[in-house]
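Q: What would this chain look like folded?
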Amino acid sequence: MRVQRVVMPWDAVSWTVLEDDGNPVGAVDRFLGFLSSSEKSPNTVKSYAHDLKDWFCYLSGRGLAWDEVTLEDVASFVAWLRLPPQGRDGTVAVLGEQAHHCGASTVNRKLAAVASFYRFHARHGAKAAGVLRAIQTPGRGYAGTAFRPFLHHVTGRSPRPRLGVKVKAPRPLPRVLTVTEAQSILDACGHRRDRLLLAMMLEAGLRIGEAMGMRHEDIDIGGCLVHVVPRDNANGMRAKGGRGRAVPAGAPLMRLYADYLNREYGAVDSDYVFVNLWAGPAGRPMTYPAAYDLVTRLRAATGIAFSPHWCRHTYATWLLRRGAGMETVKELMGHASVATTIDTYGNPRELHLMREVCPL
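A: My prediction, written as structure tokens:
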């Protein structure tokens, strides 16, 4: 089986999973088509496609029909994911001390994708949809506290569904950059365009896709604001979530943008802020591979093994260390729920353990 990119007649990009004979896996294709029609990010659809490909490879190797599996089959899938690819068909013995091929967080992500797949088909009468769900009764038990969620009185003690199989995964600390590291990365940028891209993530907390999909109209120099606008972009990048936001930005970032326009962007005719200037079709919006190449070069030049998302974590940590409330951080980061912000940054001990950062 393999994951295949699909371009719709209206130029939208989606993904599907193909059998060895080249035909789509029907149940997966319907689910992925639903995600695309719901305007999920192509990267989200691609991730689901790869996770479901693993599930169907597992089912195929055991002669199981997708709508006749049991909870035990799901548990065996976890063990199968832990094996290296060459040991999954049973023809190669795996030593007991062999490290797990998939980490706990990766396994849980794949299980969540499988659960979403079955929830979709449950609405169409699939009889196996219940095997991935267990029943949890609320009550004793919100982490041993007296906390009750909003509108708890409406649901009372009625059962709540949750994922029935899950691997215990350690909660990683958000990785942040020190002031010295952040400055070293910016100083290693050989072009103003590249420095502006990194500065947008460091000083405004933008995701890499949000920055690379940015248009000139989204930058308010006079108001020192950066607007994040969900839209389809020619480079496939897009803002996560269904609503936009405005993020305050400092005057140095606005000066860097103006300097970039005057000294590098010049007469390029494009709505996009970040475009190809020295390689590739000139004036076309930068793509993710181009940004990944930039990060790879900066890693080599600075010796800092960072990812673009570290810049975003650094911004959030800076906000919290200076007294911003969780609701404020949630709005500036563009999280769909404040629960996401609290889960990521809300543990005071973890915040204390993060290395000290401050604005650039």
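Residues 170 and 269 are 48 Å apart (CA to CA).
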